[in-house]
Amino acid sequence: MKMTIFYFTGTGNSLSVAKKIGGEDVKLISIPQVIDSRTNHYKDDVIGLVFPVYYYSTPAMVRRFLKKVKLEADYTFVISTHGGGAGAALWHAQKFARLKFDYAADVRMVSNYLPMGSIEDEIKIASGFDSKDKIESIVSDIAGRKQ
Predict the structure, then answer these.
(1) Which domains does the chain have, with CATH numbers?
(2) ∠ CA(24), CA(77), CA(92), 5° rounding?
(3) Which of 2, 46, 55, 78 has its CA 20 to 30 A from that of 72?
(4) Is 61 exposed, middle or buried (0-12, 13-18, 19+ CB in 10 A)?
(5) pLDDT of res. 108
């Protein structure tokens, strides 16, 4: 199965998730690197989108990308990463996309928004959830083309 994953990342969390989902044969494309490209149509067997939640929503760059491009695939998915809550980020991604995603999920990770706390506090909080298990579940769902 050929797969392309578009990602937007600030700290590397979303890129890390995209790599785990796609494995070795995935084509990873950074949204900031293609946002101003003349190319606006992408086609593959599977196309995914991975991005962090910003203020309980989809980052402006991701919204702009989704409004601009046409994604064509047999199976599509969208994954958000967040430190506390997914908010309406997945709903917003669907709203701005020119397609209906087949699968959507979110992954809670250590928050990197440090004005609200310290990294030490976030690591303690993170012991209460397992993002590794969630990512493995998402990888399985996507491989099985779960709706």
Answers:
(1) 3-143 (3.40.50.360)
(2) 135
(3) 55
(4) middle
(5) 85
Give tens-digit pLDDT for 100-111. Answer: 999 999 998 765
pLDDT, tens only, 15-52: 999 999 988 889 999 999 999 999 999 999 999 999 99
Question: How many whole angstroms from its chain centre is CA 108?
Answer: 12
At 65, which amino acid appears? F
d(CA 16, CA 7): 10
Neighbour tally for 65: CB within 10 Å: 24
User: Residues near 114 by Cβ (< 8 Å), separated by ≥ 6?
Assistant: none
Alpha carbons 50 and 79: distance in angstroms, whole number: 5
Output the DSSP codes for 6-62. Answer: EE--SSSHHHHHHHHHHGGGEEEEEHHHHTT-S--EEE-SEEEEEEE-BTTB--HHH
Q: Which two tokens stand for residue 1?
A: 């199965």
The whole-number pLDDT of residue 76 equals 97
Report d(CA 92, CA 42) in Å as an integer.
21
